[in-house]
Every structure is written in structure tokens, then in C-alpha cells.
Amino acid sequence: MNNILWHIIASALLLCVFSTTAYSEEKHKIGIGYEFGGAHVDDDTVLGKLDDNSIGHLSLTYEYSFNEKFAVELFALDGDTQSFSIILDDLFSKSELEYKSFGIGLRAQQALTKRINLFAKAGMHRYDYELTRTDVLLNDSDGFSYYASAGIEFQFYDFGVNVNYRLLDMGNEIFASVLAWGVSYRF
């Protein structure tokens, strides 16, 4: 199944490259942001209370614009989570999820005004996570999966500020939904 998704992404990238016309504006964008939200674990035998956890991660992005509507995105993020359950429960059974992810995807955007854009992103990412409880490793997994996000971006000359909502799947066990904000620079 992973091979099929890689072929779809590669085909979409090639289609965008060969179908674009000359694009005279800045093509490169770098960004940094912070994302926070919740993590859900489907495997109750591993850790049933992870549903109540918040996650937070730092993200770094690079985008190359094919034209004013489409871009390819590369990103890296590093994050973790800790339980929000009852305080005494945390003293005796502290849970933590630590994860890293690297991904590639496509971004489509629509200008609302000269400085405001709505955007959507989707793609594949490589994740690696460790799930522990009271310093005991419960699960250590890595693999490939999907992500998707949608949001709004405000551009001020070459600088931008964005807010978006991202869904991040980490295999069959962990699914994260986060609210993200960030700043970017186009060149």
C-alpha cells in the first residue's frame, strides 16, 4: 500500500512540474511553527488513557512554489505528550509519547485578497515514536503514513503568518489532531 501512495505523490509532483507556466514571483518559502493538540491511541491494551493527552511539536518547513496555486512542501517535526489525567495518577503512572516525523506533500492555495490565502495540504510522512509509562517502554514504532491540513495565511511582503488545523496519522495506533501556527519567509 505504501508503494501505491508514493506513486500517486510522484505522479502528482511530475504533473505539477510539467503543467506549470513561468512563475515570476518568489518560489521558495521557509517556515517555523508550533503545533499543539491531542493524541489518540487505538490500542487500548497498550495504554487506554492516552486519549486525554495533549501533544506539542516544533515544525520546520520548506516550500517550492510551482505557480501561484500549487507548491510542494517538505517538513520536519519533533514533539511529545504528557497525560492530563488526575494529578495523583500522573505521580504513579506517567505516560509519554515522543515522536519525530519527516514528510513531503502538496499545497494548494486560493487567494482571498492580495494578502490573505486559504490553503490545504496533504502528503506522506515518515514517523518514529516511543510510548512509555513510568519510564517503561510500551511501544516503539516507525513507518510511513499520511497527513492533511487546512488553514489561512496572512502575507506581509515576504513574511507570512499562518494558522491551520493538521491531522497526523502515525500507523494503526496513534492519530493526532493539532492546531498549528507559524511564521514564514519567501525568497
UniProtKB/TrEMBL annotation:
Signal peptide per UniProt: 1-22
Q: Name one Pfam family in it.
A: OMP_b-brl
Q: Which UniProt keywords apply?
A: Signal
Top-rank taxon: Bacteria
Q: Which InterPro entries match?
A: Beta-barrel_OMP, OMP/PagP_B-barrel
Boundaries of every Outer membrane protein beta-barrel domain copy: 11-187
* Name by which UniProt lists this protein: Porin family protein
What is the scientific name of the source organism? Agaribacter flavus
